[in-house]
Design a protein that fits this description.
The chain is mainly alpha-helical. It has one domain (4-390). It has helices at 4-35, 52-60, 64-80, 85-112, 124-138, 143-156, 160-164, 173-178, 200-213, 223-246, 260-264, 273-290, 296-305, 308-329, 355-382, and strands at 119-122, 186-187, 193-196.
Amino acid sequence: MPATAPLARARVYSVDVLRGLIMIIMALDHVRDFFHQPAMTEDPLNPATTTPALYFTRWITHFCAPLFVLLSGLSVRLMHQRKSTAEISRFLFTRGLWLIVMEVTIVSFGLTFNPHLNLMILQVIWAIGVSFLFLALLVFLPWQAVLAIGILITCGHNLLDYTQAQPDFKPGVLWEFAHQTRYTYYPLFGGHGVIVFYPFLPWVGIMLMGYGLGRLLQADVAPAQRRKVLVGTGLGMLVLFGVLRGWNIYGDPQPWAGSFYSFMDVEKYPPSLLYSCATIGPGLLMLAALEHVRNRVTEIAKVYGSVPFFYYILHFYLIHLLCVAAFFISGRGTHEIVDPNVPFLFRPQDFGYPLWAAYLIWIAVVAVLYRPCKWYSQYKQTHKHWWLSYL
């Protein structure tokens, strides 16, 4: 066996472990949406109404989307070692379209349980899909150029905030889809419509950065050099966050004032530069630390991280099915299935439980999904069907 094989496994292992950890944490936020009573009426990051436990519960899940997207780009770079550029481009184009279709059908139905699919919600899977379409074109460039474009978008897109802050500014559809969502409902056809939660441009930047950073995980990069760059970049992003946020210089549309809550409340929709620094920075430190760690916790996390899309789909359906069960167990009637103020069926605005109950349900959800994810992970390792790369 080549001497580089164990190192290669360690690199991929650390990526799967980190991805698994963020997938586990992600489920907490979605369980909170469905089961925590004030989730549909209050902002958990609002300093005036939140509690330390609620603030932490919401903020810790900020790591999920940017690292999910970053690691998706990084994984494409690793795949590029085994496939030609033309093959990678073709795969990215078809998978990008596939993910967008899945977002507006399977994922949206899992969220809403509306059989008519009247509402299609564009979230992280849509953002990854669109990012793949951009990367399908840019993958023909040198990786350094792709990385530079990603950094430029991530660092520069907040300059657009000054444009939209003008009193006479009138955003159009493209603006809302690309940069700044106002959660507008856009009717399409036959009673169907769409709402954008994840404007794609900033996420494209993060995807491209992930692709460029993937160069560090290639076999010809020494582990010590990889660790040095990951740690240095991670710490640099945290320092940049502290300086820019501390003096309210640039990088987030909302200046902070007066409290730690306000200081850490950075914009996710779309991900501001400061949001990206505060989440990706620690993520890179974790990626560096995990390369040589292997224990029971990392083995469990790797199971989820090796089948992220499979887990993502299943966890929404399981959470919503549990919500339906809780809805009827709590004595709710069929007339309450649809709440005009909430896009999710079986989740009235006044429905829910204390935060501690949401934590218990979260643990149960993650535990139940372990066996299916482990089975599918093993299936992918022992079968080479072309369609497995799309799931």
